[in-house]
Amino acid sequence: MSFLGSIVSKILHPFGGGSTSADAAPADTSGSSGTGAPASTGSAPAASGEPVDVEAVLNGMAAKNPQTLNWRTSIVDLMKLLDIDSSLSARKSLADELHYTGDKEDSATMNVWLHKQVIKKLEENGGKVPADLKD
C-alpha cells in the first residue's frame, strides 16, 4: 500500500472497510477492541456517509500516545502518530506519490508541502478537516 493510502486508511477507515481514491486498503484492526466494531468516540465513519472528523480522530490518537506529537503542523509527527515510517526516504517517497516538483533536498519546504497535501487528500477522501488546517 502507498504511504498516502496508509495515512488515509488509518484516519478515515480505522476499522477497515471503505476504499478511497488514495489507494487505501482496509486498516489493521489490531488496536481495536477485537470485535472489529468501531469504538463509540464519535469519530468513526457514520453509516450514513457523514464525513470523518479528522481532528477528533487524530486528537484521540495523540491523547493515547506517550510522545508529544504536533500532528497539526508536522508531517513527521503526523506519520509518527499513525505509526508510519517518517524517515526522510519515506517522506521523499510520499512526495513522489503526491507529485511534488520541488527540491526534495530542501526537506523543510517539502515537509510543509507534504502536510498540506495530506490534509487536502484527507478532505477529498471524506474527512472533515478544520479550517485552520486548510491552506
TrEMBL record:
DUF3597 domain location: 4-130
Specify residue ranges for compositional bias: Low complexity.
Answer: 20-49
**UniProt region (Disordered), positions on chain:** 15-51
Superkingdom: Bacteria
The UniProt entry, under InterPro entries, shows: DUF3597
Q: What is this protein called?
A: DUF3597 domain-containing protein
Per the UniProt record, the lineage of the source organism begins with:
Bacteria, Pseudomonadati, Pseudomonadota, Alphaproteobacteria, Hyphomicrobiales
